[in-house]
């Protein structure tokens, strides 16, 4: 059972972490964008340069299941008034924003958009939009639109499928430069766009918003613990046959913690500092796992 001192310390740690959150942190972004579509619509209008775009439906953390192969979880899935589907992903790690990852997200959206027997021409327009902390394309552009085209003529293929990378490192006295500045802000008072600042302010400064975020942080801790505990016990039992249940479970939990850290590294969505904080592993151990993963 946790003591008042432990609970108080955890609360202070949560507040400190909350103060450092930015819209570039996907857990924070998805909560801020659970506002009926206002923030998503605002961002999409700027990114796609479509001031008349209307978002009619928004879901966050959408699990798209593939029964035979790899499933995906989409940060944000929005639908506009024309029926187009738009997947917005926040990626702090360059690895998590790979080109084949964008291709896979696009394909997973497609396979869930037609009923059996429906004509292929009824496939709606789709967008996969990666907002990355760094300039993963390394060309210094604010946005990178990717389209299929005929190689001989350069003419677009026009199959209704679009991929767009947004350079989160871009700055400038332009709408996109200001938007990326706001995505990197920790203080809503420093943000240009009030529609975004208002949501950030709610979660960072209001009692209700802080309570919601404390639940999010606690859920993240519990999920991390459950995954590590499950993996740890499984491996611990195998070792426990030879060395005893007590020693096996202890070893297994340690192994499970590293398993969770490796899985978090594989998603490409977490910085090594966050993984260390959530898993309880020393930062240097997480960095060693990261280096080993790259080999």
Walkthrough of the structure:
Strand 2 (72-80) and strand 3 form a beta hairpin. This protein has helices spanning 4-20, 26-32, 38-47, 99-110, 175-183, 194-205, 207-243, 245-267, 272-279, 283-294; strands at residues 55-64, 72-80, 85-91, 126-132, 143-146, 161-167. The radius of gyration is 21 Å and the shape is globular. The chain has two domains: 21-205, no CATH class; 210-294, no CATH class. It has 295 residues and is of the alpha/beta class.
Present the secondary structure layout.
Blueprint: H1 4-20, H2 26-32, H3 38-47, E1 55-64, E2 72-80, E3 85-91, H4 99-110, E4 126-132, E5 143-146, E6 161-167, H5 175-183, H6 194-205, H7 207-243, H8 245-267, H9 272-279, H10 283-294
Number of domains: 2
The radius of gyration computed from the alpha-carbon positions, rounded to a whole number of angstroms, is 21 Å
Low-confidence stretches: none
**Category from helices, strands and their pairing:** alpha/beta
Largest sheet: number of strands, sense, barrel closure: 6 strands, mixed
Instruction: Please bin the fraction of helical residues.
Output: 40-55%
Shape summary = globular
Largest beta sheet: strand ordering: 1-2-3-4-6-5
Distance between the termini: 42 Å
Strand content: 5-15%
The number of helices is 10
Mean pLDDT: 87
Please report the total strand number as a whole number. 6
What's the helix-strand series? HHHEEEHEEEHHHHHH
């Amino acid at each position: 059972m946790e003591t008042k001192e432990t609970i108080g310390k955890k609360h202070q740690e949560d507040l400190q972490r909350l103060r450092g959150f930015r819209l570039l942190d996907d857990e924070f972004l998805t909560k801020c964008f659970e506002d009926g579509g206002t923030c998503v619509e605002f961002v999409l209008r700027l990114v796609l340069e479509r001031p008349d775009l209307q978002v009619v439906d928004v879901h966050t953390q959408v699990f798209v299941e593939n029964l035979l192969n790899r499933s995906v979880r989409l940060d944000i899935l929005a639908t506009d008034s024309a029926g187009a589907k738009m997947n917005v992903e926040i990626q702090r790690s360059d690895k998590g924003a790979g080109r084949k990852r964008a291709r896979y997200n696009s394909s997973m959206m497609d396979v869930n958009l037609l009923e059996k027997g429906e004509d292929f021409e009824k496939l709606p327009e789709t967008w996969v939009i990666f907002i990355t902390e760094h300039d993963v394309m390394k060309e210094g552009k604010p946005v990178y639109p990717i389209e299929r085209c005929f190689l001989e003529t350069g003419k677009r293929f026009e199959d209704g499928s679009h991929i767009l990378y947004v350079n989160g490192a871009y700055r400038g006295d332009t709408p996109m430069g200001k938007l990326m500045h706001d995505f990197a802000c920790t203080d809503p008072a420093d943000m240009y766009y009030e529609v975004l600042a208002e949501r950030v302010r709610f979660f960072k400064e209001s009692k209700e918003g802080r309570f919601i975020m404390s639940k999010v942080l606690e859920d993240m801790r519990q999920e991390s613990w459950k995954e590590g505990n499950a993996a740890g016990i499984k491996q611990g039992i195998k070792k426990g046959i030879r060395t005893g249940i007590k020693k096996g479970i202890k070893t297994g939990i340690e192994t499970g913690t590293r398993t969770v850290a490796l899985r978090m590294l594989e998603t490409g969505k977490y910085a090594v500092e966050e993984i260390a904080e959530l898993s309880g592993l020393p930062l240097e151990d997480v960095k060693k796992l990261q280096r080993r993963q790259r080999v």
